[in-house]
Amino acid sequence: MHLRSLTVQAIGPFAGRHTVDLDALGQSGLFLLEGPTGAGKSTLIDAVVFALYGKVAGADASDERLRSAYAADDVQSVVDLVFEVPAGVYRVRRTPAYQRAKRRGTGTTTAQASVTAWRLPAGADVSGGPEALDGSGVLLGTRLDEVGAELQRVVGLDRTQFVQTVVLPQGEFARFLRATGEERRVLLQKIFGTQVYEQLQQRLAALRAEAARTVEASRARCGEAVAHLLGACALGPDEQAATRAALDAAVVGTPVAERVAQVLVATTTALDAAADALAQESAAAREAWDVARAAHEHARDTSALVARRAALRTEHARLDAAAGEHDEDVRRLGRARSAAAVRPLLTGWHDAATAHEAAAKALVAASDAAPDDLLPAGGDPDAWRPHLRAQRDAAADAAAALRRTVAVEAGLADRRRTVRALAAALEDLRTEVAAAEEWLAARPAARAALEGERDAARAHAGRADAADAARAAARVLVADVDALAAARADLAAAQAAVASAADVARAALADEAALRAARVAGLAGELASGLVDGDACPVCGACEHPAPASVGADHVTAEQVLAAEQARAAAEARVADAAARRAGLVERVDGLTARTGAHDARSAAAALHEAEAEVAAVTAAATRATALEAQLAAHDAATRRREAVRDEVLTQVRTAEVTVETERDALRRAEAEVVEARGDHPTVAARYAALDARTAQAADLLDALDAERAASADAGRRRTELDLALAEHGFADDDEARDAWCAPPALAELERRVLSHTADLARVTAGLADPAVVALPEDVVADVAAARTAELAARTAAADVEGRAHVAASRAEAAGQAAARVRRAAEDLDAAVAAAAPVTRMANLASGTGSDNAHALSLATYVLGRRFEDVVAAANERLAVMSDGRYELVRSDEKEDVRSRAVGLAMRVVDHRTERARDPRTLSGGETFYVSLCLALGMADVVTAEAGGVELGTLFVDEGFGALDPHVLDQVLAELGRLRHGGRVVGIVSHVEALKQAIADRIEVRPTPAGPSTLTVLAG
């Protein structure tokens, strides 16, 4: 995978928009990402990882740091990355979730994370930045989960693998180098994703435990079935012990089903035979009981017939004695029923005669009470009807004509009150209209005052942006003043350190020079010590050596000179480091001084206080403007409501004026109508009452005449009906019919006695004629007690035998069922043992505890061991170059401590100068760096191969080069150059000065005086 272009906006310390053309940087194959600590180098790497996977590079880092603290609220945080894989060119654009100011109102809201991905056409030009790519390519998706899955598919690595192979974190691999075997197991499992093997191992162990539980459960069920069988058979102690011993012997070993079946057949055969014998005995006893039961029933039936015959003969004699009384009751019942038929007519005639007499009396009373002018003089009452009807109709018509006027007269008082109330309400409405007009006249002036206050507050609130900018600048100034004071203190310390290191370096240089001079002075003695007579002198060539120089006691050796040289070089390196730190601090102090100018801590704090006060005032003005706007809206709404009320009241005034005039006219017409209608009476109601009374009197007389005529006719009709009924039922007169009548209770009792006697006589006669009674001899005798005793004895004997037979059959059946259960349990046990065998063997093999696993290695550890061997082999190829063949990594099968599970993951470093294996923790800082770097590169190669041969065209190597001496640094750069020659682009993240001189292409990240960082790309 090749990274081609990266654009960031409002990310980390970068407040603006910056684009890195990685294609241009990759032309030379090696570039440097450099800048001061905290300037934003790691932010660029986090942006790459975030664009691909939605999270930053560090495992413990928070995504919240992506949003730039220097970005304005309306600027969106964006990462836009273009990369190329064998499958094509892809572009992904992500925004993180962050808090931003609300567009309406106050407070903040969450801007949700988003992503958009495209597949670009082959050969797409990315040098113009993401704007030039807008509108091109095929959209892959906008959902976080869909795009994440698609990007991981095309890259071929998950986030953990990507961070371990594209961004090589040497600090983590230094920890990996010095880690214990158990710590390596955890890290390797995380990188290579071998948790599946450990999960498989755990799953097999769970299956083994489950199979063991199944076998034990089957064995327990087999034991329960055996115990149930022994209980069902009800064997004696000896038989039970023998049977249990035989079954226990059959269950030992596998298979057990056949041996158990043989013991069960012997156990249940005797029970079946005993049950058959008792069943035959029970059948014979039941037949004897049936014979005895039939004899008992015959004796009982004969005894009952004898008793019934005697009772029927006694009752028949009693009925014969009461025959005369029965005949009299029959006669009386006939007469009473005839009187009951006549009685309603007799009662009806009596009631009609009484009603006629009352109607005649009522007619006389009504005529006496009527006024003289209502009745005609003399004549038959039947002739009064036409006159009375004429009087009644005339009075009713006159009263009907006055009925409406009576109501009008009764409502005059209410009408007068209504007119007065309407006139008063009209005056109140006119008063309310006047008050509303006065209130509305004062509203425009009040509104103008509110508008003036609102406009002033708005003008003050309009300075919010300037106040915020001033406060932000003041905060930056305060931070810069504080940072300047700290930087000056650090610079003073750095200058002291440079001076101290320079003194040490000058002393080391003097020591080296003195030792070299002393060695040169003593070289003659050193050469003379090697002269041999006859051999040529290496200086003068003579073969004779008459006066060879001698070696002094303080002669300086070559090793001493070399040690002094190394001490001098180390001192000079320390001077260079201290000088580099001082130069960085000088640059920082100069930059901060330029940004702070003449400000000190007090003036900066005063400026910040003044800016914050102005922000608070502007905020208060904005709040006041909002409140005044609301007051103005409320003022206008109140004015509109009052105007609406006034208009409504005016409408009511006009309506009330018309209503008052209308009601007054109606009152005058009603008063005139009442005066005309009352005539010579005091009121219309009095005249109406007199007419209504005359109508009622005439109607009462007419009703009395009609009632007397109807009562007379009804009495005559009923007398005729009564006379006919008396003659029909044989009564001479009314009194004879009254004497024959019986009250309902007495009549019911008389009917009951007649019917009861007739039914009893018929029943007794039929009973005596029963064939069984007729055929019964007169001297028959039945011994029921003896027959019952014989039947009871036979029943007891049959129940006893049947109970024993039932117990034997139940025992045999239960034993058969229990035996079948034992057979099934034995078969299940055989099946469980057979099923558990392969699972147990595989689980033991995977966990390293089986006899087939000679090295006692678990499956997960074995897989990690093979991956670890590949990592060590790949690392050693580069380590041989970087260490000049001195160091080699080797894997050890020994446990590093008794608690470690990771057998085979121990590691040693072989030093070929001494041919001894060393603990990695004994390496120096520089040695640890390049050994860790080789291990990281080897891990990257293996992870890449494990991911299916994914091509990694771009590689970032993190900080750590400052610990290397010049020679090793050259070796490391040479190895990284070999990666470059293999087609990779390598980016080195560092601020080492020597790397700046060695690598021309770079990304320079620098903080600005205002706080945010900026970057510059130098390529070509």
Automatic annotation (TrEMBL):
It comes from the Bacteria. Pfam families: AAA_23 (PF13476). Residues 653-680 form a coiled coil. Residues 5-201 form the Rad50/SbcC-type AAA domain. The keyword Coiled coil applies. Keywords: Coiled coil. The keyword Coiled coil applies. Belongs to the SMC family. SbcC subfamily. PANTHER family: ABC TRANSPORTER ABCH.3. Heterodimer of SbcC and SbcD. This is Nuclease SbcCD subunit C. It comes from Cellulomonas phragmiteti. The gene is sbcC.
